[in-house]
Specification:
- With 149 residues, the chain is mainly β.
- The chain has one helix spanning 56-72; strands at 3-5, 27-30, 37-41, 79-90, 99-108, 112-121, 127-140.
- The chain is globular.
- The termini are far apart.
Length: 149
């Protein structure tokens, strides 16, 4: 496993406005053998709830980000897509961090992709804190939404 920080372009991420919520995430990519994509996020005061644990909506956002990145890596044709279904099971609170979200593409079809994301609190003895299953509608980047090729 190799930890590699995300490149930090000046200002907000491309396409995002200054002050975007993602700026509160302390993210880095990590290499996890057998996974399609993985990232770690530190648990900081900006991402915890009043109980001191990673806020569930932000954990869900991390899962969506990791799954979405996984489906567009290594594809043969550029695609666009959007999340059409997301189911999260919260198994335990993430308190210590970093949390690691690991994506596995389960099915890649012509119009949809299904991904499972497992989230572990690495600082709490690798505690399994959540699992998510996401479905994405995908289309070639040059196709207009709502049209049939």
């Amino acid at each position: 496993m190799t930890d590699a920080p995300l490149p930090a372009p000046p200002g907000p991420a491309p396409g995002l406005t200054p002050g975007h919520a993602f700026e509160a995430f302390d993210l880095r990519t990590v290499e996890v053998p057998g996974s399609d994509w993985a990232m770690e996020m530190e648990i900081t005061p900006q991402v915890v709830n009043s109980s001191g644990v990673l806020q569930g909506g932000l954990l869900t956002t991390l899962a969506d980000l990791v799954a979405g990145t996984a489906i567009f890596r290594g594809g043969t044709i550029p695609q666009k897509g959007s999340t059409t279904e997301l189911h999260v099971s919260f198994l335990a609170p993430a308190r210590v961090g970093p949390v690691r979200a690991t994506a596995h593409v389960l099915r890649r079809g012509k119009r949809s992709v299904v991904v499972r994301v497992d989230v572990h609190d690495r600082g709490a003895e690798d505690l399994y804190v959540a699992t998510a299953t996401l479905t994405f509608a995908v289309r070639p980047a040059d196709e207009t939404p709502g049209t049939t090729p």
